[in-house]
Write a structure and sequence with these properties.
The chain is an all-alpha fold. It is built from six helices and no strands. The protein has one domain. About 70% of the residues lie in helices and about 0% in strands.
Length: about 150
């Protein structure tokens, strides 16, 4: 068991309040990484004339909004489909943040580091599934999507 240094700061309002804060704010913080990825994807695709920027922007966009593949965004491009898929993806990322917050606060003393570690595992599964869906769609359709 590790001992704490004498000058270690106490947890503000106690460990229980800190765990509650992680459970309340965690799902909302779970939206930040995909929102940043979506912003970078939009910057890469907007005004694009390069194949590399287009492929990277598409990949980041699909990883940020995995519901886009279910909505058929590469093949169907209306603005309503984009908005619905982004809203659906926001719900997915809220659920990922909720699961990560619950898993991180299973122990009596939880920290934001625990939350981000759990978030990385759950988000990694979502991203792996998204890439697998892209590869499967590419193989099933018999043409290059990206």
């Amino acid at each position: 068991m590790q001992s704490l240094p004498v000058d270690a700061r106490p947890v503000p309002q106690g460990p229980r309040a800190y765990r509650t804060q992680i459970r309340r704010v965690g799902p909302l913080l779970g939206l930040l990484p995909p929102a940043a990825m979506g912003g970078v994807a939009w910057l890469l695709v907007h005004g694009n004339e390069s194949t590399v920027r287009g492929v990277l922007g598409f990949l980041l966009g699909v990883l940020a909004a995995p519901v886009m593949l279910l909505a058929g965004v590469p093949l169907e491009g209306s603005s309503g489909v984009y908005l619905a898929s982004v809203a659906g993806s926001a719900v997915v990322w809220l659920l990922v943040g909720l699961v990560a917050a619950r898993r991180a606060t299973r122990t009596p003393v939880a920290s934001w580091r625990d939350f981000w570690r759990e978030y990385a595992w759950v988000a990694g599964g979502v991203w792996l599934g998204t890439i697998a869906a892209l590869v499967a769609a590419n193989l099933l359709l018999g043409r290059t999507l990206v």
